Amino acid sequence: MSVNLNKVALLRNSRHLGIPSVLRAAQACLQAGAHGITVHPRPDERHIRRHDVFELAELLQGWPQREYNIEGNPFHNLLEVARELRARGLPLHQLTFVPDSVGQYTSDHGWSLPTDAERLRPVIAQAQALGARVSLFMDAEPGQMAAARALGADRVELYTEPYAAAHSAADCPLDGKASTALQAQLQRYAAAAQAAQAAGLEVNAGHDLNRANLSDFLRQVPGVREVSIGHALIADALELGYSATVCDYLRCIDEAAASPAAQAAQATPATPRP
Ligand SMILES: CC(=O)[C@@H](O)[C@H](O)COP(=O)(O)O
Ligand SMILES: NCC(=O)COP(=O)(O)O
C-alpha cells in the first residue's frame, strides 16, 4: 500500500505555517509499515508542490525498501521533475501517467487507447530510460489492456472510483439493485486485471479506496500488486486521531490552570465594580 499525501499538502497550503508537515506524515506512514509514498503534483500546485517532491525523495533515500510513486500527466511537467530527481541521484521507482487536464478537480478517467497511444509511446520510453517503472492509469476495460502493454507500459493502475461508488451504494439496504451492480463492477475489475496480467502487465489500483471497500476489492480482483490510497486514509487519520488530540489540548489547559500564576490569579478577589 502506497499512501498518497496530496491531502496533507492541501491542508498545509491553507496557511503559511508548514503544518501539517508532509514530511512528518510520510515518516509516520513509513514507520507504520506503508510500502510506499504517492504524490500527484498538479500543475496548479494546489496540494503537492515541487519542493515536496524533492524533499520526499530525500526522505525516501533513508527507506531503501519502500517505493516512491509519482503520478501526473506526462504532457505537463512530470518528466521534467523525473529528470531532475535523477540528476540529483534521488529515488524514483514508479511514474503513474494520468490523463488529467490542467486544473482538473480530481482524476476521473483513464487513458483511451488507441486514441492516446502514439503520443504515449515516446514518453513511456523516456520515463523508463530514467529508470522508472511506468504505470498507466486506466479504466477497467479488459479490451484496453493488451494495447497498454503494446505501448511498453510495465503496469496499469485500474481507476477504482466506479467500484467504490457501487460499493458505497450497496451499503444501502433499501436498494436491492445495488449489490447486483457491485458484483457486476467486481467482475469487470477482475476481468480487466486478468486481461492485463495475460498481456504481461502488473496491476495497481486506486481512487476512492477506503477501509470499507478495500478488502472486498482485493479478495475478488486477483493479483493486485499495489493500491495507492489518499483521500479516505488521510480523512481516517484525522478522525481516528481526534480523541487523543483533544485530550492533549485539554491537558495543556489543565497544566496552565495548575501553574502558580493561574492559582494566584484565581485567589485574587475581583475588584468590585462601582
Ligand atoms: C490518479 C488518482 O486517482 C489519484 O492520484 C487522484 O488523482 C488523487 O488526486 P487528488 O488528490 O488531486 O484528487
Ligand atoms: N492513485 C490513486 C491515489 O493515489 C489516491 O487516490 P485517492 O485515495 O485520494 O482517491
Give a summary of the structure in a few sentences.
GO terms for molecular function: pyridoxine 5'-phosphate synthase activity. The protein contains 11 helices and 8 strands. It has 274 residues and is of the alpha/beta class.
Commentary on this structure:
By secondary structure, the chain is α/β, with parallel strands linked by helices. The chain has helices at residues 6-12, 22-31, 50-61, 78-87, 117-129, 145-150, 161-170, 176-198, 214-220, 231-257, 260-267, and strands at residues 2-4, 36-39, 67-72, 94-97, 133-138, 155-159, 202-206, 224-229. The protein has one domain (2-267): Aldolase class I (TIM Barrel), CATH 3.20.20.70. It has an 8-stranded parallel β-barrel, surrounded by 5 helices. The radius of gyration is 23 Å and the shape is globular. Bound molecules: 1-deoxy-D-xylulose-5-phosphate (DXP) and the ligand NCC(=O)COP(=O)(O)O. The site of the ligand NCC(=O)COP(=O)(O)O has 13 residues, from strand 8 and helix 10. Residues 4, 6, 40, 71, 98, 106-107, 137, 206-207, 230 line the site of 1-deoxy-D-xylulose-5-phosphate (DXP).
